[in-house]
Hints:
The structure is a single chain. By secondary structure, the chain is an alpha+beta fold. The protein has two domains: about 5-55; about 105-245, Phosphorylase Kinase, domain 1. The protein is built from eight helices and seven strands. The protein has helices at about 10-15, 20-30, 35-55, 65-70, 75-105, 110-125, 140-150, 235-245; strands at about 135, 165-175, 175-185, 190-195, 205-210, 215-220, 225-230. Strands 1-2-3-4-7-6-5 form a seven-stranded antiparallel β-sheet, with helices on both faces. The radius of gyration is 24 Å and the shape is elongated. This is Anti-sigma factor.
Amino acid sequence: MTQDPLSDEELIAYFEDALPPAERAALEARLAQDPRAQALLLDWARQNEDIRALYGDMQEDVVPARLRDALCAPRAPLLRQALAASAVLMLGLVVGWAGHARLGDPSPAPALADAALTAHRTFVVEVVHPVEVPASQRDHMNSWMSKRIGAPVSPPDLSASGFALMGGRILPAGKWVAGLYMYENSEGQRITLYVAPQEEGNSTLRFAGDRQTESLHWAKGGLGFVLTGALAREDLRQMATSAYEQLL
């Protein structure tokens, strides 16, 4: 027998865990026969993950007292609704601007990020020759890569996140020369930091990559940097922030 599709109101109540146990069980039985509703719930869950990755550290932010008092004060129903809508709008603008300040404006991944992703996928699987110069020869690696890239470069320390430097190599990058540093943790997971000259101005951290391999790229002092790895966005963001601060 054909059943009516689940409404958005029912799905929202289910997603927010606002249903009594009996109603939830009945809805789950209908959900098993509704691919559209399943896809919608999955999409909502992914959106929540992205929001937590970007703004997780803002969850404890205090609502300004003036907004809280305005919402709690006894007022006429229509005025109270208008104030609530205004407060939500203002909070959305604050969160949006905070995201802009932290991760920059959304933009298509530049050629630099594409090149970094290709280099990452090429060399992280290498067993015998993952790097050209090992970390044990760090001084030589720094002077050699700086000379070839044409600017002073040195790999940041990511040991606080559990990743140790393996070494580095140089790569062709159009009319430039790029450098690729590789790091590895105790579980054998690898990440890379791609460095290359670029003519664009400075920029803040921006995400690129895909769902399997994430990357964060930024530019500073005539150099572009891309940190890449198959990690959760929040983990990668923390390491990229550390690298960004060390490379200022």
